[in-house]
Amino acid sequence: MWWDERVSARFRRNLQPTLTYWSVFFSFGLCIAFLGPTLLDLRCQTQSSLSQITWVFFSQQFCLLLGSCLGGVFKRTLAQSLLALFASSLAISLVFAIIPLCHNVVVLAVVMAVAGLAMGCIDTISNMQLVKIYQKDSAIFLQLPVPIAVFFLLYKERMVPCFSSSSHPLLSADELAMEARPVEKDDQSASVHRAHAAGGHDDLFSCCQSKNFRGASYTYFAVHITGALVLFMTDGIVGEYSGFIYSYAVEEPLSVVHKVAGYLPSLFWGFITLGRLISIPVSYRMKPATMVFINVIGVLITFLLLLIFSSSVVFLFVGTASLGLFLSSTFPSMLAYTEDILQYKGCATTVLVTGAGIGEMVLQLLVGSIIHDQGSYSFLVCGMIFGGLAFTFYAFLLFFHRMYPKPSTDMDAASPDKPAVMDDTGQYQR
Fold first, then answer.
1. pTM of the predicted model over 0.85
2. pLDDT tens-place string over residues 224-268
3. Is residue 134 a contact partner of residue 55, using CB atoms and an 8 Å limit?
4. Domain 14-165+196-423 sits in which CATH superfamily?
C-alpha cells in the first residue's frame, strides 16, 4: 500500500494548507502554458517578428527568476507567505484581463514581467511550505477562483483584520503537544535541530551569508550546483517545447493545420498533469533518484525518436505526450532527492527553483533565436542537446551523492520526526 497511516495522518492534519498550496499552481501553470498556442496570435496583435516576440518569454522568465528569489524573503512567517501568495494569484488574474489590450510588444513584455514576478513567488513559497510540512514525505505531495482559496486560508488563520475565526494556527498535533508540556534538556537539543533544519530553506540572499559556508565540503556545493543544472535543462526543455511546438508544427515540412497544431501544447501539458498524478503512488514505492533517472533517460530517448521520425505528424503527437509524461515529475522528484541528500540543510529549495527559472528564461530565448536563424528543424536538435546535458549533470549528481558525508547518528537521534517517549524517571527521551 503506497499510502500508510502515518502519511495519511500528516495529510489530514495539514489538509487545508496543502490544498491551498496546490491550488495556486493553477495560476502558475496557466501563465506558463498560454504563451505557446497564442504565440502567432500575439505576433499579429503586436505586429512583431518571431525574434521580437521571443523577448516576451524572456521578460516573463527573467522576472520569474527575480520572483523566485523574492519569494524566499516572504517565507519568514506564515502570515508573510500567505499574503504574498494572495497578492501573486490576484496579480495573475489581473494580467490576463490586460493582455488583450496590449498592442505593442514592449507593453506586452512589461505585463508578462509582472506575471513572472507573481509566478516566481508562487513557485518558491508553495514548494518551500510543502517541503517544510512533509519533510521526508514531501516527494508525494510535491506532485500537483485561486485568490479565494488563499484568502480563505488567511481567514482561517485569523490574519484578516475585518474577520475573526476561532480556528487554531497551522500546527501539527506533535507541535501542539510540544508547546503544551515543559521543555526538557533533550527537547531543547531537538528544538535547536528543528530550527537549524527549518533554516535550511533560506532565500537566495541568506544563502550567500558566510555562516552557511563554514565547514562545508566541496560536495555540499557540488550537490547544489549539479541539482540546479539538471533542472536548468529539464525545466528549460519544458519552457522551450511548450513555447515553440505549435510554431514548429505549422511550419514546413510538417505543415500541420493550425487548429490541429493547437492540440499539441494541450497534449503536452495534459500529459504533464497525468504524469504528476501517476507519480504520486509511484513516488511512495520508488526512490526520487530512480524517478529522476527514468525521467532524464526518457526525455533523451524521446527527442532521439522525434528526430528520427521528424516527418511524421502522428509521431509528433506521440512524442509530445511521451515528453510531457517524462518531464512531469522531474522537478518535484529532483527537489525531494536533493533535499534528502542534504538532510534538509543548505539552500537546496531556493537554489533549485532559481536554476529552473534561469533555464526557462535562457533556453527559450536561445531556441527562439536559433529557430529564427537556422529554421524549424533546429528546434528538435536543441531539445536533444539539452536532454543529453541533463543526463550528464545528473550523472555528476549521483557521483557527488556517493561522495557526500553520511549523517551522524547524533543528528538522527535529534530528528524532529522521532517521537518523544517518557522513561522511568519521568523524563522525555528520543
1. no
2. 899 999 999 999 999 889 888 988 998 888 889 988 988 898 899
3. no
4. MFS general substrate transporter like domains (1.20.1250.20)
